[in-house]
Amino acid sequence: MKYRYTLEELGQISRRILISYWTLLFIATHIPLWFVHMDVPKDSDKLAHFLGYGGLMFCLRGWQWVAAQQSDIQEQIENQNGNRKRYTLWFAVLVLMVYSVLDELLQIPVYRHADLHDAIADWVGLVIGAIAFYLSRPWIVRLFLVSPLETEAASE
């Protein structure tokens, strides 16, 4: 199994991880508690919300970062220096904050309850997930991304 990838391969992998994670998070937050036969303590789900949305932000920022790197390379190839749309941290925060509110409201029809404290835990998780990606990005790049020098050496 390969463990170092080109930017294009890393883009595909990060997109698949994001879609899979987001789908699993949606399913997990919409399964009625009576269906899984779980009695959960009153505020125990706050940690799950925090970790779930932190992971979602981490995955989204990873995909955005790879997409931005690919865009930068394409721009250099085409010698364009004009205005281009960049996916930013603020876009990710806005999208996921709106999604977290909708997620809480969509739990009502499946016999769960919407809770402001859950939404706050989601939002704190978003911030921590963004910080975690920012801090771990150099290691992720070093571990998984093939450097341009390695690519040139492999082609010779």
From TrEMBL:
InterPro entries: VanZ-like
Keyword terms, alphabetized: Membrane, Transmembrane, Transmembrane helix
Signal peptide interval: none
Chain segments annotated as transmembrane: 21-38, 50-68, 89-108, 120-136
Every VanZ-like domain range: 40-135
Domain of life: Bacteria
One Pfam family, short name: VanZ
NCBIfam families named in the record: vanZ_1
Protein name stated in the entry: VanZ like family protein
Species for this entry: Polystyrenella longa
